[in-house]
Specification:
single chain; 218 residues; two-stranded parallel sheet; 3 helices; 8 strands; 59% strand
Length: 218
Amino acid sequence: MRTIRSLAALGLLAAPATGAAAVELHTGTWAHAWAACKGRDGDERLERERRRLRDAAHEAGERGLRLHAGHGITYANVGELLDLPLLQPHVGLSLAYERHEDTEAGLTSEYTVGLAEIVGGCRLTLLPGFLHAEGNASVGIGRATLDAGGQSDDGDWYGYGLGADIVGTLPIPMLMTLELGLGAGWRVGSSSDHNLGGTAYDIDTEGTYARAFIGATF
């Protein structure tokens, strides 16, 4: 019991020592204050609770902790929390593979791409520590293979895209956080100088995609 009390007293100061990567701000007292004055500016109790949340959010950011918030939040008062840094930016590396097939005049061509992308975006926590929604943008490079009529040739690939994912996370204390996700998006890509039978072909692709992925954050 002494440990629990000491952690409660230390608050955000204790989070890094426990190996926690995120903290959740309890917004219950703020929500009660908001309801009591119907969100009117100038109410002393509401202003005090606003300052408390802003100060805690700032301290969490300084300590490198991800920030969540909960208790008493409704559609009517949630707008006040939008200035808290509840959206966490993220940057990562993605490896992907895509395949296109087309048949024209009885000839089937296959176009495959292996690519690496730099992905950046923002993540919104839906269920603290376990479920998140995120939007992202990506730019990538790779190698593309065009295969048609029994001939094939490789070329450099470049592209970019936009996407959205639902991500489940499983924290492994003091080690990593595993991520499992489902998503969809839109990607544009192109490659050039595929030489088939003495003719050079440039390929442009554009379309939507669906994906399932597994990853880890450290």
